[in-house]
Automatic annotation (TrEMBL):
This is DNA 3'-5' helicase. Its EC number is 5.6.2.4. Has both ATPase and helicase activities. Unwinds DNA duplexes with 3' to 5' polarity with respect to the bound strand and initiates unwinding most effectively when a single-stranded region is present. Involved in the post-incision events of nucleotide excision repair and methyl-directed mismatch repair. GO terms for cellular component: cytosol; DNA helicase complex. Keywords: ATP-binding, DNA-binding, Helicase, Hydrolase, Isomerase, Nucleotide-binding. ATP binds at residues 31-38.
Length: 770
């Protein structure tokens, strides 16, 4: 069939076309939200392929999430009118580096079947090191060391390269422990997340031949969301692009939101220095959002200093103003959002109707999700939680995965430790110690240590018999994995049965046992999408999006961080309160760095919306065990008044909507420049003077806080205890920030950053916003 020469170029604007057609040499696309950066990047991939510049497997394309990678692959396929066969190197930094590292593992002392540790494993391992070194783990919790090591790895510092200026870290033991930790990982044939990049950078730096091979192989390099790359990622890219310099990076400094994870927005600014003569493309037309939404977003981000500054305009219809609404508390906010979503689905108040798929709730902190989930379950509103490891973080899922890991690689000692006595096999601390010793003395893995111990009759009674069953089981499952005859799904079920793990939960009488069994079933279901267990384990280790399986339209719930790069016709942004958004931590910090990152997050949130953007806040919020009254977010003050409509919740307060926000403008095109006037802003005072807010206050006088507080607190207290887990960051009014180090009844052990270790009743603590 005759095809137009390059249909993927047709719907690009001239600047985008320039970025797509400048195939050779470095290209930097630096532009605001919704200007079609990702679209142009995708078109570039199609163009590279059809012009014969590169085969699909010679293109290295880095996206920020696995979801984004899938979408990009689909889009390229649609542009080319065919399914794209294998773009094996389109994925996240982590996914790509796992593949590369499996090929070259031996260069950093690993075997190619290395295990990827999750944060839980990582912390258990660190804890062992800390205890072995006789360091007070209450004062120097493993989580703190984990954070430190991550920080170093993000900067591509191996233990040998950690600069002297860091010598005092972790009570002067940081570098040394980091070194031990790296050695221990090697013994275990394991890596953590940070290692994936660190090892690849090391390999490329130490083995020029390997580097050269990939410099030749990856003829073209493309990177989306470049503003959020950290130093290690940056070095890795620079090494690969050094020879041919065919690298195209796209990003937006205003959307840099991973500074807390070591991202360096400076990487963007360095690009032109690293790659002199780069084609720099600026895109200014936003194709995503209405003028009101864009102006509101610009108004907020204007308050940041030191921006590169960009012009953004849109030709979209004026549309709805950004809607702002205050609620009594978090539950009412969730209730209102639920009702609003239902009525928007039907199409009310002169708006078109929206499919549930078109609506998203973007929260600042993941604990905000629960109120919405509870509410939506109650009213039967289908929803999905996108992004994040929640499902895979559950205890029973971790246990089951440990069994799978052992089936794939029996000398995964951390997995063995996790399940050796789960379910209970009468193998207490003593027995486990014997296994450890037998393993150490023979330089063997724990499974082999256990075998030796049994052979030498070093263990007796019920424990020995049970241990025998376990090690035999592991050997059998491993054989089955290797033989590859049985489907991995069947095998997973067999493993869970033969290990006694399923039976354990069946016999368990606790109220949560049925849910745990459901989750285990879900886990086996999740395996269906994969070829084998190893592929699945990798997927989980890389924390894929956790979308539920059922069909039909659903509202999406996710964090603002997880919403990067996405767009939805209608977006809800709840919880705009000081202390939640911006987070308390960013407000307590001296300097503006944290606050400015929060503001960029607000910019990311608003700019996800195409047609309707609804911002809300609650006057009171139950944060774990505590009621807190809150002020509307300072970012609300920064919303330009002309583009905001304050809503009164109908029904709840007997009010109706204020003047309808349907003031369609005569001019379809407005400029929302980054330097737009700063003086005309909706202020918190406007909100306080709004009828909705006044009614809210009247109501607060009618309903004294003390009464509902008490009755609710009783329920809350019980929850609060189980709400915390070891390693959680918490805040206490008197002692400040700290980390949970242990739990005991209704008491929580906390190691406070400034005040030292304390044992406290859970309800006096709140989870610190991320
Ligand atoms: P973000 O900064 O949020 O990642 P982005 O710059 O990557 O945004 P895209 O997601 O690529 O923007 O594009 C935003 C929307 O605009 C998409 O729906 C896209 O299809 C549309 N779009 C982009 N360019 C054009 C164009 N030239 N003509 C029509 N629509 C376009
Ligand atoms: Mg994008």
């Amino acid at each position: 069939a005759a095809m137009r020469p390059s249909p993927w170029l047709d719907d690009l604007n001239p600047a985008q076309r320039q970025a797509v057609e400048a195939l050779d040499g470095p290209v930097l696309m630096l532009a605001g939200a919704g200007t079609g950066k990702t679209k142009a990047l995708t078109a570039r991939i199609a163009h590279l392929m059809t012009t014969g510049r590169a085969r699909p497997n010679e293109i290295l394309a880095v996206t920020f999430t696995n979801k984004a990678a899938r979408e990009m692959k689909d889009r390229v396929g649609r542009l080319l009118g065919q399914t794209v066969e294998g773009m094996p190197w389109l994925g996240t930094f982590h996914a790509i580096c796992v593949k590369l590292l499996r090929r070259h593992a031996e260069l950093v002392g690993l075997k190619s079947n290395f295990t990827i540790l999750d944060t839980d494993d990582q912390q258990r391992l660190l804890k062992q090191l800390i205890v072995a070194e006789n360091i007070d783990e209450k004062r120097w919790p493993p989580r703190m060391l984990a954070g430190l090591i991550d920080h170093w790895k993000n900067r591509a510092w191996t233990p040998q390269k950690v600069p002297a200026s860091e010598a005092s870290a972790f009570n002067h033991r940081g570098t040394e422990l980091y070194d031990y930790y790296q050695r221990r990982l090697k013994e275990l044939n394991a890596v953590d997340f940070g290692d994936l990049l660190l090892h690849m950078v090391t390999i490329f730096q130490d083995h020029p031949d390997v580097l050269e091979q990939y410099q030749r192989w990856f003829r073209y390099i493309l990177v989306d969301e470049y503003q959020d790359t950290n130093v290690a990622q940056y070095l890795w890219l620079r090494l690969l692009a050094q020879s041919h310099k065919n690298i195209c990076c796209v990003g937006d400094d205003d959307q840099s939101i991973y500074g807390w994870r070591g991202a360096e927005v400076g990487n963007i600014l360095r690009f032109e220095k690293d790659f002199p003569g780069a084609t720099v493309v600026r895109l200014e037309q936003n194709y995503r959002s209405t003028p009101h939404i864009l102006a509101a977003a610009s108004g907020v981000i204007d308050a940041n200093q030191g921006r590169l500054g960009k012009t953004l305009w849109t030709a979209e219809e004026q549309g709805e103003k950004v809607r702002l609404i205050g609620h009594w508390d978090g539950d009412e906010e969730a209730r209102w959002v639920g009702e609003e979503i239902e009525s928007m689905a039907k199409g009310t108040r002169g708006m078109r109707s929206f499919s549930l798929d078109d609506m998203a709730i973007l929260v600042r902190a993941s604990h905000q999700m629960r109120a919405f989930e509870d509410r939506f379950l109650t009213i039967g509103l289908p929803y999905r939680v996108i992004g994040g490891p929640r499902f895979y973080e559950r205890m029973e899922i971790r246990d089951a995965m440990a069994y799978f890991r052992l089936a794939v690689s029996p000398d995964d000692d951390l997995a063995f430790e996790r399940i050796v006595n789960t379910p209970k096999r009468g193998l207490g601390d003593k027995a486990q110690q014997k296994i450890q010793i037998a393993a150490r003395e023979n330089g063997a893995s724990l499974v082999d240590g256990a075998r030796i111990l049994l052979q030498d009759k070093g263990l007796g009674g019920k424990g020995a018999a049970e241990l025998r069953v376990l090690v035999d089981g592991i050997a059998r499952w491993h054989d089955a994995v290797r033989a590859g005859e049985r489907s991995h799904i069947e095998l997973a079920e067999v493993i869970l049965d033969e290990s006694g793990y399923t039976t354990f939960w069946q016999n368990e009488k606790s109220p949560e046992a049925p849910g745990r069994l459901e989750n285990l079933k879900e886990l086996v279901k999740a395996l269906e999408g994969f070829e084998n267990l190893q592929g699945f384990l990798e997927h989980v280790a890389l924390i894929m999006d956790n979308e539920s399986e059922s069909e039909g339209a659903k509202v999406s719930i996710m964090t603002l961080h997880g919403a990067k790069g996405l767009e939805f016709p209608a977006v809800f942004l709840p919880g705009w309160e000081d202390g939640l958004f911006p987070s308390q931590r960013s407000m307590d910090e001296s300097g503006l760095k944290g606050l400015e990152e929060e503001r960029r997050l607000a910019y990311v949130g608003i700019t996800r919306a195409e047609e309707v953007c609804t911002i809300s806040f609650a006057a009171n919020r139950r944060v774990y065990g505590q009621w807190q009254s809150a002020l509307p977010s300072r970012f609300i003050d920064e919303l330009p008044a002309d583009h905001v409509e304050v809503l009164t919740p109908p029904g709840l307060y007997g009010g109706g909507y204020g003047a309808a926000g349907m003031a369609a403008s005569a001019s379809p095109q407005i400029m929302a420049e980054s330097q737009s006037d700063l003086h005309d802003r909706a202020s918190r005072a406007d909100v306080y003077n709004s009828p909705g807010w006044r009614r809210l206050q009247e109501r607060s006088q009618q309903r004294p806080m003390s009464q509902p507080r008490e009755s609710r607190n009783m329920v809350v207290d019980a929850e609060a205890v189980s709400s915390f887990t070891e390693g959680d960051r918490v805040f206490h009014q008197k002692f400040g920030y700290g980390t949970v180090t242990g739990l005991e009844g209704d008491k929580v052990d906390v190691s406070f950053d400034k005040a030292g270790s304390k044992k406290l009743v859970g309800r006096f603590l709140v989870e610190a916003a991320q």
